[in-house]
Amino acid sequence: MADPAHRIDPVTLEEFEAMSFGDRKAELIDGMIVVAHAFPTSRHGDVAGGILVALTNALRRAKRPCRAQTGTGVPIRLDRDYNLGPDVLVHCGGTREKGGKPVLVVEVLSPSNSATEMMKKLHAYQAVDSIMDILLVEQDAYAVDHWTRTPDGAWTLRPHLSGPDAVLALPAMGGEWRLEDLYGDG
């Protein structure tokens, strides 16, 4: 006999923040809870770490009042709520205890990411007024899609970057990097 169907209702940011997921990473995507089934792969960690180090060093050299971090959530209110945990987040202003406004998010894509999930995340990130750049980074190939907000507030997708020698330029962060170096492989 089949298990009975379960009704799944969307939850709010407040309900999500009151929940405990133990040592599992969970995100709220379009009001629905998504719990990671496994820890990220070593390659995923290498790529996220390489990006974190590159951004941190560039921000310090440029003396920008910003921080690059991992493990920081971004709560977003739309028709349904989101609480996303990008692999790397840059925020500006704020203090050590309370981060400033997010300006750049990086999602390292693995084979388990669905296209629908990533489109919903992209839409949510684009709804945050302070976010100016979104990087979707392939974990298993040197490939980056870079979304950037134009001065009039519209979003544009820059030319796709691929290959170890392709260069990602982020002038607002104070740097540019060959993908091989950004991935922590150079």
Give the SSE string.
HEEHEEEEEHEEEEEEH
What is the overall shape?
Answer: globular
Which structural category do the helix and sheet elements fall into? Answer: alpha+beta
Number of strands: 13
Beta-strand content estimate: 25-35%
| Rg (CA only) | 17 Å
- Whole-number average pLDDT? 87
**Contiguous runs where pLDDT drops below 50 for at least 5 residues:** 1-7
Kindly describe this structure:
The chain is an alpha+beta fold and 186 residues long. It has one domain: tt1808, chain A, CATH 3.90.1570.10. It is built from 4 helices and 13 strands. Strands 3, 6, 7, 8, 9, 10 and 11 form a 7-stranded mixed sheet that branches. Strand 4 (74-77) and strand 5 form a beta hairpin. The longest helix has 20 residues, at 42-61. The protein is globular. Mean pLDDT is 87; it is low at 1-7.
Give me some keywords for this one.
186 residues, alpha+beta, tt1808, chain A, 7-stranded mixed beta sheet, 4 helices, 13 strands, 22% helix, disordered N terminus
Structure, briefly:
The chain has 186 residues and is α+β, with helices and mostly antiparallel strands. It has helices at residues 13-17, 42-61, 115-126, 179-182, and strands at 26-29, 32-35, 66-69, 74-77, 81-84, 88-94, 99-109, 133-138, 143-149, 155-157, 161-162, 167-170, 175-178.
Which helices and strands appear, and what pairs or packs with what?
Elements: H1 13-17, E1 26-29, E2 32-35, H2 42-61, E3 66-69, E4 74-77, E5 81-84, E6 88-94, E7 99-109, H3 115-126, E8 133-138, E9 143-149, E10 155-157, E11 161-162, E12 167-170, E13 175-178, H4 179-182
Parallel strand pairs: 7-8
Antiparallel strand pairs: 1-2, 3-6, 4-5, 6-7, 8-9, 9-10, 9-11, 12-13
